Amino acid sequence: MHILVEVLLAQILGIIGGGQLGMMLTEAAKTMPQHISKVIVLDPTKECPAAKAGAEQILADFKDKDAILDLASRVDILTYEIESGDSSVLKMAESKTAINPSPETLRTIQDKYLQKSFLRESDLPVTDFALIESLDDLKHKISDFGYPALLKARRDAYDGRGNYKLKASTELENAYESFAGKPLMLERFVDFRMEVSVIAARNTRGQIATYPVVENIHEDNILKITIAPARVPSQVAKDAEKIAHKTMAVLHGAGVFGIEMFVTPDDKILINEIAPRVHNSGHHTLQSSATSQFEQHLRAILGLDLGNTGLLHHTVMYNILGPSGFQGRYKMPHIAAENTYLKMYGKTESKPQRKLGHINLVDADDTKGTEGLLEMLASIKEQARPTPA
User: Fold this and answer.
1) Domain 194-388 is in which class?
2) Is 1.10.10.60 the CATH number for 2-99?
3) What is the pLDDT of residue 346?
């Protein structure tokens, strides 16, 4: 009888987005059959990574109103792995199913200006910013910011897309016109010493847990390497985790959030951006932590107790990206190195800068340390490079 009750309580999970994050959420769901009986994803790519991992797929655009409402009607709980869905449609879908993180939170975070305004109103540290409504407005407000400064699209921008670094007044007109009428904002440039992030979770009962702060290294605005834990003074780590905890306390809804931050030259923390979903800089948790960020997200939205977030091992995560100058089918990398975990995402075609997989290098016996792991990574990078099939 007890087993029957557990089966009846298992829920159908819906995910908007079926890329690599949806794939790893699907894999985590499979380890929780007593809580999740089935996964359905909405994604415009046929045989998306999540579908290859066993999720049922609705083939449609992330913003397709009918498809979102159809998905909501077929699941017990709905979440997302990409923040480009239509928050107003998700708000409508709340009458059909539970949605986390909340549509209100998604709406706030989707718009970088609303996000920064919310953070400032919540007394959380951010750089100076301003709304830009015209070219004349930009020319007027840039005088308060100086050069360099960042002109940003307010919506649908990630991995550096939608950012224009202004270096001189001669660039203003070209920069403004390059956004083709999109809503814009201006940010003061942060001369940061390091980029870091904290993966944080909040469950439906208000319990909050944060993973240790990690260090992120970007190339061409795309995350290339994550180092866990970050090589920062202990006080900086404590400050970053405290800010992440406060951020989760003021946000609505449940789930895992990736909170990206800058460490300034004087060791102050500024929030850069928040992702209302599992995050690339949290992939290390698949091997470094007792509870991966993917399991943690599911635990959070299901209202379960959050899992242990302590680091079991020093870990370096390396993103496998499609090389420039090549598009097409590629050979799968083969990595032969101790305590190295290769995770490919099931994408059959390589494109420049496309995220195809990642490697976690784990210091299982605590003898290598971070520098040893980075040396190890340098020796296997070429093995991980995608090449034509």
Assistant:
1) alpha beta
2) no
3) 94
